[in-house]
Amino acid sequence: MGKVPVQEGLPPLPRARLKLLARLGTRTGRERERLYLLEGRRAIEDALQRGERLRLVVAAPDAEPVVRDWIARRRLPEGTEPFVAGAAELERVVDTRTPQGLVAVGEVPDLSLAALSEDAGRILLVVDGVQNPGNLGTLLRTLAAVGGRSAILCRGTVDAYNPKALRGAAGLTPTLSIAAHVSAREAVEWCASRERPIVLLEAGAPDLFEARLPERPLALAVGSEAAGAGPGLAAAASLKVGLPMAGPVESLSVAVAGSIALYGLTLGLRRSGAR
Predict the structure, then answer these.
(1) 124 and 253 in a common domain
(2) Which of 63, 227, 260, 262 is the most exposed, having the fewest neighbouring CB atoms within 10 Å of its CB?
(3) Of 107, 128, 160, which marks where a domain is finished?
(4) What sign does the dihedral 100-138-225-34 (CA atoms) show?
(5) Is the pLDDT of residue 64 over 90?
(6) Alpha carbon 109 to chain centroid distance?
(7) Among 67, 87, 107, where does a domain finish?
(8) d(Cα 5, Cα 119) in Å, to the nearest integer?
(9) What is the value of pTM for the model shown?
């Protein structure tokens, strides 16, 4: 076998591309460009493994051999632009305390409710007003773990493609069908038209593990820790459930509580034979 030819150095990142990376650090920029930032070797390699389309990949000098190796092994999709940039330049466009020297730009899919997949599995997640990106990312990661495929993010919920939300979701966000900027009324109507009862997770509500659950695919609705879900979702809920708390514990983070509820409801649906 012949040797793989040594790749020449990557071209320097043009200023226009650097400005694009900076814009993608904001929600407004991501929504305008319909692009998002992906940071770190593991996250980028996972995206490549899933066959996601990446517009460009940028490496700091120390990480340039990694990108050159991807090129040599034909791991970068056709059309992906590889560049090298100074470490200080990349540090200014990422939000991690210890930058990894590798950044990619991916394409945000259609986040309209009309594009939401009908094949949502046993459980659909509805998120209303969760502002912490790490909490949202954890909820989406757990949704994927229990076999859920779709989520509706009501207005006032943090951007699912926020870098911290992406890290919280372990890069799984693009594998889910997500609708964003959805009103509570639209979310309720979507669920009703698909005959998916809404189960609302609410502090102080009856014990989830003792509740009589619907025996068909459903939607779990969660709200912010401070205010809970809005009145529209609360009024439309077929069932309100809570988690039992022992001792001095008054509440759990929405990420923890929502994850427990996702597993509890999925187990109940599995036992009932719902598909």
Answers:
(1) yes
(2) 227
(3) 107
(4) positive
(5) yes
(6) 12
(7) 107
(8) 45
(9) 0.91
